[in-house]
Amino acid sequence: MKKVILGFSGGVDSAVAALLLRREGYDVRGAFLDVYANGAAEDAIRTAEYLRLPLEVIDARGALEENVCKPFAEGYLRGETLNPCLLCNPAVKLRTLLERADAQGAEYIATGHYARLENGAVYMGCRDKDQSYQLATMKREQLARLLLPLGALEKPRVREIAAEAGIPIAQKPDSMDICFIPDHDYAAWLERRGGAPGPGPCVFCGETIGRHEGIHHWTVGQRWGELYNGRRLYVAKIIPETNTLEMALWEALFSREIDARDMNWLVDAPREPFRGRVRARHTRWETPDCTVTPLENGRAHIATDTPIRAPAKGQTVALYDGERLLGGGFLQ
Hints:
Elements: E1 3-7, H1 12-23, E2 27-34, H2 40-51, E3 55-59, H3 61-77, H4 84-104, E4 108-110, E5 115-118, E6 121-124, H5 140-143, E7 146-147, H6 155-164, H7 186-193, E8 200-204, E9 207-212, E10 223-228, E11 231-239, E12 244-248, E13 254-265, E14 274-279, E15 289-294, E16 300-309, E17 316-321, E18 324-331
Parallel strand pairs: 1-2, 1-4, 2-3, 4-7, 8-12
Antiparallel strand pairs: 5-6, 8-9, 10-11, 11-12, 13-16, 13-18, 14-15, 14-17, 15-16, 17-18
C-alpha cells in the first residue's frame, strides 16, 4: 500500500481528501501545520480522531514567519499586493509535507486544493472553485509527488461526501487566505508589527484631493470612499517613497501590457513567445488570452487580448495553456 502525507487542516476539504485517498487504496497520514489560529489545531485533531487518521501536528510558526509573514509585511509596506498562499505553498506547506514524506518513507504528498492532475500536469478545477492559481509558484519536484484528490469536484459535492461519512465538520465555513491573521484585519496586523506608515496624500491628476490613513490599508483597484466632482475614484498606484495614493477613474485602471518577475515554470522554460491565458489575481472569471514573451533573468512580458483590471505590483500571475497550468510569477 502506497503511503501519502496529506496536508490536514481540520476543514471539510482535507477531511474528504483523506476519505477519497483511502478509497483509492492509499495509506494516508495527516500533517497539520500549526500557526495557532482560531482553534484550527483542535478541529484538526478531533476530525483526525473521528477518521482514525494518524496525525502529526507540526509547529510551523518559524517557517511561516520567515517565508510568508515577513515578505508579506515588507511587500505591503512597499506598496505591493502579495497573496500569502502563493508564498506559503512552495516554501512552507509543500516543502514541509515533502520533508515529512521523506522522513516517513512516503512516496506522495497531497492537499485539498480544487485542481486536477493529469499525467503529471496541473489543470483548472471546476469553474466555481478552481484553485489551480494557488499552485502556480510550487516547484516541479513538489508537483512530481503531489496528489490532488478533490480534482474537479464542486464544493457542494464535497460537503455531501463529508455528510454521508458523518464527519462533524461537514458544514464548517471555508477558511480565509490569511490564516496567520485570525481576525483578517491585515492592516492592524501590520501596525502591530511596527513600521507601518501614517496618513498621507491622495492625488488625482496632480492635485491633492484628500488624505489616507496609511498606504497599507489600500490596494490597487480599491474604490476611494468619497466622490470627486460626482465621480468615483479608485487607487491606481501606490507610491511608498512619498506615502501617496494616486487615484484614477474606473476606465484608467485597465491595462493590456504587464511584466512579471521571478517566473516559476512547471514545464520546460519557454525560450520563444507563445500564446496562452493569464490570471492576474485569485479570480475565476478573468483569464484573458495573451502572448507571453520570455525575457532574461526570469522575467516575462505579457500582452493580453482584452484588458486586465487593476494589475497590482506584487500580485501573482498564473499562465495557462488552455486549462493546463504552466507556472507563474509576480507582477513588477
